Amino acid sequence: MKFHSGFLILLLAISMIFLTPHPAQAFPHYSRKYKMPCWKCHQMNFPKLNADGEKFASLGKRFPVDIKDRKEYPFKFAEATTFMTRLQNSARQTNTANTSALAIHSVQVFSTSSLGRNLAYHLEYYFYEEGNPLWAEAFLQYNSTGSNRYFSVKVGQFEPLLWTKQGLSNRISISRPDVMNTRVGNGNSYRIRDRQRGVELAGYSGPWTLAASVVDGAGPNVLDSNNQRDLILQGYYAFPKGQGSSIGAYYYKGIGTARPSKKPTFEDDFYRLGLVGNYTKDSYEIDGGAFYGRNQTVTGSVQPSFGYFAALEKDFGDHYVGFARYDHFDPDKSKSDDETQGWTLGIDKMVLTNMKLTGEARWRRVGTNPENSTVLQLLMVF
Description:
This protein has 382 residues and is mostly beta strands. The protein has helices at residues 3-17, 28-34, 51-58, 64-68, 77-80, 161-165, 178-181, and strands spanning 81-93, 98-115, 119-129, 132-143, 149-158, 196-205, 208-215, 230-238, 246-258, 266-280, 284-296, 302-316, 320-330, 340-352, 355-366, 369-381.
């Protein structure tokens, strides 16, 4: 199938979205447990969290009122577990090839719940993601008593706290910002968005959150080959009257084993520094972020990188979300013509109570080469 055929399929499916009945959305396991609708914790189209959902996650899968009333819910596996699958049609066009595919993108299970008053667990396992099984997250979380001033400790494999709070993990779009999703090309496997294994200590006081993590540094499902531990520092401020508006800072310092192609393996002493933020109103949200980094090359020289993104999400009616994002990422500022930059546009629609359809188109330039792609994804939760 040619690229233009995939694009026609995308347009046809999006047009069908608007003719489909759309009852209220639901995200099953917490709805079953707490007997409440999903929009209590999620924005209009899951899985993106709203301010209440972020608070619920940081409190160890508990609501502030439950902590105040010292209320506990008995653990039931069916009320803690959700299965999710994604079916996907994709097409991609470059200077040298046109490709397309219709396939099961992923099949995964979430199991997450509080365990008594101070302990919670979170498991996310992919039976299949683009051909491979993997653990995405698996951690225990301890929370001190309190809902305004408290601390938490996570142990296991988890994503940086800031990405959950900023909606960069549980996102509406299919693709991630390039600066978070792309390696710099020196053989180091680190990506900003990767989950890590280690320990995280976070402190919460009103609108402020500070977190420090000591992690293995190799990313998910990979053991680091050196004995060094990496450090993540994060800070977050939620504007009290901002309907979820916030700003956050991120710092990563690590030593990773770089394995460049056809060159000797070496230890890369590197860091990342970034700012992210969002402005949220009733029917739209503006997100953005910028990251600067320094890596080393096999010869010991410095490889500086820089990237940013800006995104807009807009609600249309009760069940439609449109989104647009601009990306720019330069993996090596000492070189010319190696930047990735371009636009992503899409629409997201709740189709049934446990099903949503997302269409996304991207127009990018990777170095000096144009690259266009479309994706139509059907997400179902059970």
